[in-house]
Amino acid sequence: MSLSSPLLGSIVAILLMAVVTALTRTGGLLVMSRVPIGPRVERFINAMAGSVLVAVITPMAIEGDWGARMALLATLGVMLVLRKPLPAIAMGIATAALWRFWIG
Description:
This protein is mostly helical and 104 residues long. It is 86% helix and 0% strand.
């Protein structure tokens, strides 16, 4: 069995991405193990988590279809009421699936 050139290139790209991901995660752990976690650092980390979430959600809300928008609203509603991420995510997935099934 021989690997074709595009397949070999894909495998090499996937392996390189895996190595880079492992290095960045390891590097982050090494750096943060040397940083004392005080109130300022904790606030910064919490703010970063929220800003990453907004950066992921905003393009979906702007450029996504109505199924994506309804899923975001359903997720937000359940999260505000229950304050638990797992039911909110499940409701978002179910809303997107049902919206796309019924509406198209």
